[in-house]
Automatic annotation (TrEMBL):
<feature type="signal peptide">
    <location>
        <begin position="1"/>
        <end position="23"/>
    </location>
</feature>
<protein>
    <submittedName>
        <fullName>Prolyl oligopeptidase family serine peptidase</fullName>
    </submittedName>
</protein>
<feature type="domain" description="Peptidase S9 prolyl oligopeptidase catalytic">
    <location>
        <begin position="454"/>
        <end position="662"/>
    </location>
</feature>
<dbReference type="GO" id="GO:0006508">
    <property type="term" value="P:proteolysis"/>
</dbReference>
<dbReference type="InterPro" id="IPR011042">
    <property type="entry name" value="6-blade_b-propeller_TolB-like"/>
</dbReference>
<dbReference type="InterPro" id="IPR002470">
    <property type="entry name" value="Peptidase_S9A"/>
</dbReference>
<dbReference type="InterPro" id="IPR029058">
    <property type="entry name" value="AB_hydrolase_fold"/>
</dbReference>
<dbReference type="InterPro" id="IPR001375">
    <property type="entry name" value="Peptidase_S9_cat"/>
</dbReference>
<dbReference type="GO" id="GO:0004252">
    <property type="term" value="F:serine-type endopeptidase activity"/>
</dbReference>
<dbReference type="Pfam" id="PF00326">
    <property type="entry name" value="Peptidase_S9"/>
</dbReference>
<keyword id="KW-0378">Hydrolase</keyword>
<keyword id="KW-0732">Signal</keyword>
Length: 662
């Protein structure tokens, strides 16, 4: 779609770029004044609604966690105290013991091979500038490795000696991640890579060879071998391609395992040899793809009309586990890392989602998560040596009968060009009259609504709503054409999927000739989708809730965290080259069209979508005297993390829809 100068000017005037109702720069709590935070502070919630939310938040399951090498203790994350903390159980289905505390969200990111220490990540008030910490597996004080203001520090690798770790941090430049080596005994930090770019350690071998990854876009990556002694980076894969590669070292010398959709519509797992002439391993794969520049790719998983969403090879290079995404349902598969032959796994016929967690350093134990439509995840540990499966952690459903939960059904609706858009639909068991519908758009946009247990869906179904989760074009799990359909200015061609959902529901879900009222909601990109639904497609929905959503793609790209800007620009477009398209795709451009009530929820510390995005939208609505409400959490970031704030966020959203749709 082409744009003329006059059209850009028209959009600019509509945006209020010449005389905006509110202008902001930067992100975080310091980018907004105290008076604004006070004005939009979360109001009290009706106790009856709060109780409903509390009850469903109690339906939960602890994280899959990390098992100690001897298989006797499991450390996992759990938000039972109101914030995410680390817990321990000393045997299957034993009583859990809390090992970290406080209000700051703390998660476990690793355990040393000798089982002596935990590596922890701790965030402050949703800033997502987490620090890295160390704690003994016996408990006790948490020791800081690195936690700096406005710096994100992330564990990358733990060496076999259980003494040396590697982490990344954007402490040298806000838009780049350096790689450091750290000695747990001497507390010495050594910089080993200071190149510009978003870097991480994809894998490492005992001989000291590293595989470094570098993001070149929201989906594209390059890979390099790194020699720590010489500090040399050797290009291996993806340079100059802008391809979706995900790689780890394989079991054979000179081999990489690569997940990519380069050669097919769907992601498939390949064995990649950069120099086929030196490949001494017997190639048991079929249909190799020869690339004179890149080497040889040989598929090691079957061709399927569905994506492999993820894979992992254990540290000992014995087994490869991969997850197949079948239209939003997941299953786990395993193959031998040397022969690529299938390995049997326990079966879960009633499961909607089956996926692997972590594998112990010696390759013996793997945690497995199993999720059904009517129960939160159940956690298991699989012992490969004895082929036994043990349930370790039990989900909890206090004061609720799980049989009352409703399973979602996979349905679809037609877009205006005839494309069928998949959606999961949750319906009340009884609906004596026309039930109002809530359409929830997922974030990302490169994410996917999936089958399985959905707490939010159960809240709305119990309250008398039909709950709908579409996977519009741009979502994961339906091939690369679907995934890339909304990149840059192409989003203008498919953004109508948002309106088409409402048009279909209103026309086809009538009862006795009466169409349902329809609400729209979502978080992050889903929040942006809700704003587009209420502005550009005003009148298609009767009420909307946007949670941490972007209101202006230009100001969003200018003010989001520097390290994220490159990745988001590749998805939404360049602020200079694609300026006209970004304006046309910004909800605030169409603020004059808003016809129905709108609720906006935002965290002041959000490093992804700045709080200014919400405030400027609310200011534009207030200037035009359009019914709206803004709630800003001063102690949250990209969505509510603390239980008390979750109750307020979900409760006010439910209250809002009950007021305007029922």
């Amino acid at each position: 779609m082409k744009f003329t100068t006059s059209l850009v000017l028209t959009f600019s005037l509509s945006l209020g770029l010449i005389s905006p109702a509110y202008a902001y720069t930067g992100l975080g709590k310091n980018s907004v004044d105290a008076a604004t935070l006070k004005r939009y502070a979360p109001p009290a919630l009706d106790p009856a609604i709060a109780r409903q939310i509390e009850a469903i938040l109690d339906v939960r399951s602890p994280g899959l966690g990390f098992l100690t090498p001897n298989g006797k203790k499991l450390f996992f994350g759990w938000a039972a105290t109101g914030s995410s903390q680390v817990w321990r159980i000393d045997g299957a289905q034993r009583f859990p013991v809390q090992v970290t505390g406080g209000q700051d969200s703390t998660s476990m990111v690793g355990i040393t091979p000798d089982g002596q220490y935990l590596l922890l990540s701790r965030d402050r008030q949703g800033e997502e500038n987490a620090g890295l910490y160390l704690q003994s597996t016996q408990g006790g004080a948490v020791q800081e490795i690195q936690h700096q203001p406005k710096v994100k520090t992330s564990l990358q690798y733990i060496a076999d000696d259980s003494r040396t770790i590697y982490f990344s941090a954007n402490d040298l430049r806000p838009d780049s991640y350096a790689i450091y080596r750290y000695d747990l005994q001497t507390k010495q930090k050594t910089l080993i890579l200071a190149e510009s770019g978003v870097w991480w350690i994809a894998d490492a071998l005992p001989n000291g060879k590293f595989l470094f990854g570098k993001a070149t876009g929201s989906q594209s990556r390059e890979y390099y071998e790194f020699d720590e002694t010489t500090k040399q980076l050797t290009p291996v894969l993806g340079q100059g391609e802008k391809e979706d590669y995900r790689a780890e070292f394989g079991a054979h010398p000179g081999e990489l395992l690569v997940l990519t959709s380069k050669f097919d519509e769907f992601r498939r797992l390949y064995r990649y040899i950069k120099d086929p002439v030196k490949d001494s391993a017997k190639d048991s794969t079929k249909d190799p793809v020869k690339d004179p520049v890149r080497g040889k790719f040989s598929p090691i998983t079957p061709a399927m009309p569905m994506d492999i969403s993820s894979f992992d090879i254990d540290t000992t290079k014995q087994r490869i586990l991969y997850t197949v995404n079948d239209r939003g349902y997941s299953r786990l598969e395993a193959i031998d890392a040397r022969t690529f032959q299938p390995i049997p796994l326990p079966q879960f016929p009633q499961a909607n989602q089956v996926y692997a967690g972590t594998t112990t350093h010696d390759g013996r134990f793997t945690t497995i998560g199993v999720e059904t439509a009517k129960a939160p995840r159940t956690s298991y540990v699989y012992d490969w040596s004895t082929q036994t499966l043990t349930q370790w952690v039990l989900p909890s459903t206090p004061e609720i009968d799980p049989n009352e939960f409703v399973a979602g059904t996979l349905e679809s609706y037609p877009a205006r060009d005839g494309t069928q858009i998949p959606m999961f639909v949750y319906r009340p068991k009884q609906c004596p009259q026309t039930c109002p519908a809530i359409v929830h758009f997922h974030g990302g946009p490169e994410a996917q609504s999936k089958a399985g247990f959905n707490r939010l869906a159960q809240i709305y179904v119990k309250a008398g709503f039909i709950y709908v989760e579409p996977n519009v074009r741009g979502s994961e799990g339906y091939g690369k054409t679907w995934l890339n359909a909304d990149n840059g200015a192409k989003r203008l061609e498919v953004i109508t999927d948002i309106e088409d959902a409402a048009l279909y529901i209103r026309a086809n879900w009538q009862v006795n000739g009466k169409p349902p009222k329809i609400g729209v909601m979502g978080g992050s990109y889903g929040g942006y989708s809700a704003l587009m639904a209420m502005t550009k497609f005003a009148g298609s929905y009767d009420a909307g809730v946007s949670i941490v959503g972007m209101s202006n793609l230009l100001t969003f790209l200018q003010n989001t965290a520097a390290a994220r800007r490159l990745l988001r620009t590749s998805e939404y477009g360049d602020p200079d080259r694609d300026r006209a398209a970004l304006i046309a795709l910004s909800p605030i451009t169409y603020v004059d069209r808003v016809k129905s009530p709108l609720l906006i929820v935002q965290g002041a510390n959000d490093p992804r979508v700045p709080v200014g995005e919400a405030v400027q939208m609310q200011a534009a609505l207030e200037k035009r005297q359009i019914p709206s409400q803004l709630i800003v959490f001063p102690d949250e970031g990209h969505g509510a993390g603390k239980r008390s704030n979750q109750v307020l966020e979900i409760g006010h959203t439910l209250r809002f829809f009950q007021q305007h749709l029922q």
